[in-house]
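Continuing the series of single-chain predictions for the mutant panel. This is the parent chain; the variants come on the following pages.
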Amino acid sequence: MERIGFLSFGHWGPGQGSQTRTAADALLQGIELAVAAEELGVDGAFFRVHHFARQQASPFPLLSAIAARTSRIEIGTGVIDMRYENPLYMAEEAAAADLISGGRLQLGISRGSPEPALQGASAFGYRPQPGETDADMARRHTDAFRKAITGAGVAQADPRYAGGAIGLLPVQPQSPGLAERIWWGAGSRKTAVWAAELGMNLMSSTLLTEDTGVPFHELQAEQIQLFRDAWAAAGHPHQPRVSVSRSVLPIVDDEDNYYFAGSALRDGRDQVGVIDGLTARFGKSYVGAPDLLAEQLAADTAVQAADTLLLTVPNQLGVEFNAKLLSNIAKYVAPALGWSRKDAGNLL
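Parent structure:
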C-alpha cells in the first residue's frame, strides 16, 4: 500500500447532527479537510461527483481551491459521470486545475451510476446518438476528452484571427502528463480490462455490478489482476495505478463509540442486491478497534493488490472529527498494510 487518501461524497443538508447544513459548508469544509489531511501525511483528497443531489457536483472549483492551499497531496475525483460532461470544456477545466496544483490531479471518471434525475444528462443537453446506450455516450465523451488533453486538434483555425495558423487547433491550456493520471471507475471485470487496454488507471469502488458467489474482496482482487494482465499485454510504457475504496471507522474514544458502536455497518458481511438492473455485490465496512481493523484489512486481498486505498469519510460529521479519523488510521491501521508517511513531519 503506497498511498492512502480520503474520499468524500460531499453530503450536505439540515439533518440532525449535520455539520454541513449548506452547500457552502460542504465545499469549504472539503478544502479544510484536504489541508488537514496533508498535514497528517495523508496522500490524497478525492471527491465523489453527483448531480441533482445535495452532494458535490462541480469538482474543478473545489479541486483548484484545494490545490492553491496545499503543496503535496494528490487531488482528484471518484468519479465524474461522463454522461454529463462537455468533453472539451472539461479538458480546459482539468488542465487548469492540474496546472494550479503542479501536476497533482488524479481524475477518476466513469459511465455513471444510478441517480435521482430521470435521464438527467439530457437536461444538460446530452443524449445518446441513435443506436447508442448511456454507457456508449459516456465512453464517446471520454474518448473526446482524452484526445483533447493530449493536444489533439479539435477546431479549424481561422487564419484571420489565429496569426495565420491553419489546420486544427487544440484546446488550451494543456497540462503535460495529465493523460497518464486519468482513472476509470470500473464496476466489473470486463470494464477493468477495457480501461487497461486504453491505458487508464483503475479505480474500483465498494461495489461491483456482478456476483460470482465469492467474497467481494476476492472478486475485486480478480478484477485487479485481470486489469494488470491486460495492461501488460497492451504494452503501455508507464506503470498503472490501482485504487480501491473502503469504509474504515476505527473506534478509539467515546465519540467514535457513540457514532459507530451500534451501527449496522458493524455487520461485517458483504451484501448482494440489484443496482441499475444488475446483480451487484457490495463490500463490507470495517468498524472496530484499530488493531482489529489492521488485521482485517491485511487479509483483504483487493486492498493488498492495490497501490492506493481511498477511505470514505462521513463528511457531515465535520472537519475536526474526520481529521481525527484519518489521523487514527494513519497512526494505527495503515502502517500494518505497508503504508508509510512520505514527508518528514510528525503525525498530529
